[in-house]
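TL;DR need structure tokens for one chain.
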Amino acid sequence: MKLIVGLGNPGKEYNNTRHNVGFDFLDYYFEYKKITPTWTKKFDGVYFSTVIGDEKVYFLKPHTYMNLSGNSVQKIMKYYDIPVEDILIIADDLDILLGNYKLKLSGSCGGHNGLRNIEQNIGTIEYKRLKIGISNNKEMDGKDYVLGKFSKEEQQILQNLFQELSECLDDYYQLPFTDLMSKYNRKNR
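>> reply
TL;DR here they are.
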């Protein structure tokens, strides 16, 4: 059993914003897998489950807004008795260049309020994450930047990246996470 959580903010006004790459990647992945999700409103978000390979997989988009994402994650974990070692959180990262990503086994939230709230709610920093780079603009306020929209050029970079990340997610169900990191993690391009 796996729980894949894409982080973002609900509402049309947040579509195509940097903070929503977790939501955006899940949407791309479903299209890539030719999965038409039937979302259920529950756990302060929307979720659905399917079987991929031999693995029962729950997908979750918290609708608590980014800074309270942990409430939603904790509720679904508790309800389905999903152990922390079976969750993967997909989030944006300011410290990684756009077009790049990093898989991590654990670590601090790095200033990401959604990850901080997840850690507070599940009681550990020992959870797997896929951090998708959104770059940073030090000349803008951080909040304004992460809630800003991607340009058409940036959207194209992400679409190209999402293809590779879809293959990575497919491997996630099959490989030990350390092998997955060895296969996919690399220096920024």
